[in-house]
Design brief:
It catalyses: (1S,2R)-1-C-(indol-3-yl)glycerol 3-phosphate + L-serine = D-glyceraldehyde 3-phosphate + L-tryptophan + H2O. The structure is a single chain. This protein is an alpha/beta fold. The protein has 19 helices and 15 strands. Helix 6 links the parallel strand 6 and strand 7 (158-164).
């Protein structure tokens, strides 16, 4: 239908909830480079991954089937918040004075306020089906940890979480949420693992990083005979998130629109992949009604896509994980303590990195002050206070809208708003009071030092 000039929300009925996840590996112009064993440097086998993941998730990781059916038990839980709404940001458009049409897919309506349960629920489900009693994981800001704790409570599976220390200390309410759902949460680096003890011996005041927390969670998984869950980066995780884009395509059709530009924030790549992969699939199959651009927005303090090297690297700091070819800043790179804790990761998802190498997507890096400025404007116009991570997508959409203001083009912009910021208000307090830390600049020397330690492949 055509734009009626007043509609703000586009809802899909529960009957339109996707029945299958979309797997972009079926449509890639070139296949992904293989994941390598950290010891042999040979392509990894399912048996190599079995200590960490149940076999169904391993199959999904390597599958090239276009669609993988969503189990009904997972869809039953999805129905508590899915399909999520698509909004037309009419108030933001007016405030910017742009002729652009801005739409956003809002994932803050989930029980934990972010997109993360889209993969937490199926990951715990498949572990439960395999007879697993306990899973371990890491979390930055706590969005992923909260989602896994929620999913664990749905299926009665024990959850142990290692939260990046700087976020553990500055975002206590996310920890409290995890613990209320029944999970155990520890600040990382901790003295519970050999990896944590090693980091603390080198730097007792280490703020932690997602790479360190992954090392601890993987070590704890192996030692305790548990399984490991990951909130981003891996192929099956990004695939679970495609329910976002699948719904968005139907909702854009309801609005009588199709994007000229799709924008998403990127740390590990799950929210970004979730909204853009179904649209890119249309492009690869030559089914897209018109050309469109895709823009990934990352923090300038942790710019893996814009300044990282495309190379094989470990997913964790200590070197316990398989080697994945992706854009990386080096596995022992220590990101500054910016408030977008979920984006403080040294590497990017292999699929997102591959698409960047194929020039199918663009990437920009932005500072946290300009992101909070965008988030405050969004809150004062649209009424939603985004999470610091989501502010990167808001900033990216505003950049595109202001370009349209300069050129007079009436482009359609779609972005993913991956979570609300109600548990990130201390960061907004710092922005409002003018005490937000200045944006850190990653020097060429520091980047070179981190990249110098890449494994030899």
């Amino acid at each position: 239908m055509a734009d009626d000039g007043v509609t703000v929300k586009y809802f899909l009925p529960e009957s339109e909830l996707p029945k299958a996840w979309y797997n972009i590996q079926a449509d890639l112009p070139q296949p992904l480079p293989p994941i390598l064993h950290p010891g042999t440097k040979q392509p990894i086998t399912p048996d190599d991954l079995a200590p960490l993941f149940p076999m169904e998730l391993i199959k999904q990781e390597v599958s090239t089937e276009r669609y993988i059916e969503i189990p009904e038990e997972v869809r039953e839980i999805y129905r508590r918040w899915r399909p999520s709404p698509l909004y037309r940001a009419r108030a933001l458009e007016k405030a910017l004075g742009t002729p652009a049409k801005i739409y956003y897919k809002y994932e803050g309506v989930s029980p934990v306020g972010s997109h993360k349960p889209n993969t937490a629920v199926p990951q715990v489900y498949y572990n439960k089906q395999a007879g697993v009693k306990k899973v371990t994981t890491e979390t930055g800001a706590g969005q992923w940890g909260g989602a896994l704790a929620f999913a664990g409570s749905m299926f009665d599976v024990e959850v142990e979480i290692y939260q990046v220390k700087v976020s553990y200390e500055t975002k206590p309410y996310r920890r409290l949420a995890m613990e209320t759902y029944g999970a155990k949460c520890y600040p990382s680096p901790s003295d519970r693992t050999e990896a944590g003890k090693k980091i603390l011996a080198e730097d007792p005041n280490s703020p932690g990083s997602l790479g360190i927390a992954i090392s601890e969670a993987v070590e704890a998984c192996v030692k305790q005979g548990a399984k490991y869950c990951l909130g981003s980066v891996l192929n099956h995780v990004l695939m679970h998130q495609t329910v976002i884009g699948e719904e968005a395509m139907k909702q854009m059709a309801m609005a009588g629109a199709y994007p000229d530009v799709i924008v998403g924030c990127t740390g590990g790549g799950s929210n970004f992949g979730g909204i853009v992969f179904p649209f890119l699939g249309q492009r690869f199959r030559k089914e897209a009604p018109k050309p469109f651009r895709v823009v990934a927005v990352e923090p300038s303090a942790c710019p893996s896509l814009t300044r990282g090297k495309y190379a094989y690297d470990f997913g964790d700091t200590v070197g316990l994980t398989p080697l994945i070819k992706s854009h990386t800043l080096g596995h022992d790179f220590m990101p500054p303590s910016v408030h977008a804790g979920g984006l403080r990761y040294h590497g990017m998802a292999a699929l997102v990195s591959h698409l960047k190498e194929l020039n199918e997507i663009e990437a920009i890096a932005v500072g946290q002050k300009e992101c909070f400025e965008a988030g405050v404007l969004f809150g004062r116009t649209e009424g939603i206070l985004p999470a610091p991570e989501a502010n990167h997508a808001v900033r990216g959409a505003i950049i595109e809208a202001l370009k349209c203001k300069e050129t007079g083009e009436e482009k359609t912009i779609l972005f993913g708003l991956c979570g609300h910021g109600f548990l990130d208000l201390p960061a907004y307090d710092k922005y409002n009071s003018g005490t937000l830390e200045p944006d850190a600049t990653l020097s060429e020397d520091a980047l070179a030092a981190a990249l110098a330690k890449l494994p030899s492949v």
